């Protein structure tokens, strides 16, 4: 058992951890409770199933921190990024994937690996022996969650992730909507027209906000609190924070021109992004929601162009549990009170598919090194992966610890560069150049 790495959870983090460890020569068992034990958000038994957006966000590795994280994972021969590239669909400057073929390809490659096996069962405790990675993500089972709380002595920490609705493309009125990426971003015509846009005038916007605020919402269970991650706010919660908030967020009208009425500037614009390669499904960008299904369909059909919308999936809401990593984990991602156990993915307090997979990549490599009698130090905090691990294992303030996407605010400053908006382009390029050099050095040392 000591020569085998056991991974609990077959999501983005668990799948990447398994791949990296197996590629390093270690036998791996993935313990996945689905499909025997279902969750609210998952629909299949595939590994690495996407339950919210189908986007890995920006793919710009020179000016964007998540794009840099893409680059680092590709350089480390990451499975998740390889599968994403193989199942890519147009999304302007973003990396979006055809979700079902993506998960199927990850599952197939893991199942075909001679060092990887999958055990379909629920793990409900923290084992005392063997090398383990807990990568159960936002939907950790209640029994395992209780075991984690019992071991750490910490109160449950949770926020709520809301799922955006998905609409059948053929039900969208293209006499009102049009295809265009914001600021015509993208190198090809397909990329420059990757988003579908629905315009609103001021009266339509105000009526929509009124309906949004009045709609029936999902109630929380007793003892639960609505502590949302600001990067994934339900659209109605945005409206509750101020009527203009959505118009400065996902409904901002900038960088787009309505070809049906080019002389009229929209007051607000709702964007939809392709959700599959065929272009038959679109998800509403930034419209995660906790509205009840009946109210949800009624309110969303107030959007011009979506009056006759048919929904492949309505939005929903689910609990997302995470641990207070700065107090509980060491810099090798090990639980301080049980160092045979590592944590990876969203349960550590990173947010997003890519960030979760990156923490799986790191945990898998670190666990494999320990099993083989070595020790793998974390990468420099100047890298995107290193900035994340530094943040969750000590860089964040433990008392106010909340889930975090990768961003340049986590990176140490580059000396000699001016701050502020005007110097941002040069500053970001300096961050990414430095990160790529140091990431490659770390990979060479880890694999040497």
UniProtKB/TrEMBL annotation:
Domain MnmG N-terminal residues, every copy: 5-373
InterPro entries: FAD/NAD-bd_sf, MnmG-rel, MnmG-rel_CS, MnmG_N, TrmFO
The reaction(s) this protein catalyses: uridine(54) in tRNA + (6R)-5,10-methylene-5,6,7,8-tetrahydrofolate + NADH + H(+) = 5-methyluridine(54) in tRNA + (6S)-5,6,7,8-tetrahydrofolate + NAD(+); uridine(54) in tRNA + (6R)-5,10-methylene-5,6,7,8-tetrahydrofolate + NADPH + H(+) = 5-methyluridine(54) in tRNA + (6S)-5,6,7,8-tetrahydrofolate + NADP(+)
Stored PROSITE patterns: GIDA_2
Domain of life (superkingdom): Bacteria
Cofactor(s) the record lists: FAD
Any one Gene Ontology cellular component term annotated for this protein: cytosol
Entry EC number(s): 2.1.1.74
Family matches, as Pfam families: GIDA (PF01134)
Molecular-function annotations in GO: flavin adenine dinucleotide binding; tRNA (uracil(54)-C5)-methyltransferase activity, 5,10-methylenetetrahydrofolate-dependent
Keywords noted in UniProt: Cytoplasm, FAD, Flavoprotein, Methyltransferase, NAD, NADP, Transferase, tRNA processing
Coiled coil: none
Subcellular location: Cytoplasm
Chain positions recorded as FAD binding sites: 9-14
GO biological process: tRNA methylation; tRNA wobble uridine modification
Entry's family note: Belongs to the MnmG family. TrmFO subfamily.
Function: NAD-binding protein involved in the addition of a carboxymethylaminomethyl (cmnm) group at the wobble position (U34) of certain tRNAs, forming tRNA-cmnm(5)s(2)U34.
HAMAP family reported in the protein's UniProt record: TrmFO (MF_01037)
Protein known as: Methylenetetrahydrofolate--tRNA-(uracil-5-)-methyltransferase TrmFO
Organism: Antarcticimicrobium sediminis
């Amino acid at each position: 058992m000591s020569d085998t790495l056991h991974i609990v959870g077959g999501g983005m983090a668990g799948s990447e951890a398994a791949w990296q460890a197996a590629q390093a020569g270690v036998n791996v068992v993935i313990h996945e409770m689905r499909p025997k034990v279902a969750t609210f958000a998952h629909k299949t038994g595939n590994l690495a199933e996407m339950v919210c957006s189908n986007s890995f966000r920006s793919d710009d590795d020179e000016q964007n921190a998540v794009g840099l994280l893409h680059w680092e994972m590709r350089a480390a021969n990451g499975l998740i990024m390889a599968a994403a590239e193989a199942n890519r669909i147009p999304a302007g400057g973003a990396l979006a994937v055809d979700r079902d073929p993506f998960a199927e390809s990850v599952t197939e490659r893991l199942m075909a690996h001679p060092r990887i096996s999958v055990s379909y069962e629920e793990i409900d405790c923290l084992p005392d022996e063997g090398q383990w990675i807990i990568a159960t993500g936002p939907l950790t089972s209640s029994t395992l969650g209780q075991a984690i709380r019992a071991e750490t002595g910490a109160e449950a920490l949770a926020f709520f992730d809301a799922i955006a609705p998905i609409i059948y493309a053929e039900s969208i009125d293209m006499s009102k909507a049009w295809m265009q990426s914001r600021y015509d971003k993208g190198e090809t015509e397909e990329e420059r027209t990757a988003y579908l846009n629905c315009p609103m005038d001021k009266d339509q916007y105000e009526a929509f906000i009124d309906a949004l605020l009045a709609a029936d919402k999902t109630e929380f269970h007793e003892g639960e609190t609505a502590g949302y991650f600001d990067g994934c706010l339900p659209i109605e919660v945005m409206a509750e924070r101020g009527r203009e908030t959505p118009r400065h967020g996902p409904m901002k009208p900038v960088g787009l021109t309505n070809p049906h009425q080019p002389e009229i500037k929209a007051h607000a614009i709702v964007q939809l992004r392709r959700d599959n390669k065929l272009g038959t499904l679109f998800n509403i960008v930034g419209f995660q929601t906790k509205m009840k299904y009946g109210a949800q369909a009624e309110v969303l059909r107030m959007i011009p162009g979506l009056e006759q919308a048919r929904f492949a999936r309505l939005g929903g809401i689910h609990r997302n549990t995470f641990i207070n990593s700065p107090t509980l984990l060491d810099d090798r991602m090990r639980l301080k009170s049980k160092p045979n156990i590592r944590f990876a993915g969203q349960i550590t307090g990173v947010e997003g598919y890519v960030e979760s997979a990156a923490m799986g990549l790191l945990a898998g490599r670190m666990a494999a090194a320990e099993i083989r009698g070595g020790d793998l130090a974390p990468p420099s905090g100047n890298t995107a992966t290193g900035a994340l691990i530094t943040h969750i294992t000590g860089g964040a303030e433990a008392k106010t610890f909340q889930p975090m996407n990768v961003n340049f605010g986590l990176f140490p400053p580059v000396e000699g560069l001016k701050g502020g908006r005007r110097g941002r382009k040069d500053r970001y390029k300096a961050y990414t150049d430095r990160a790529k050099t140091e990431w490659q050095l770390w990979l060479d040392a880890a694999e040497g």
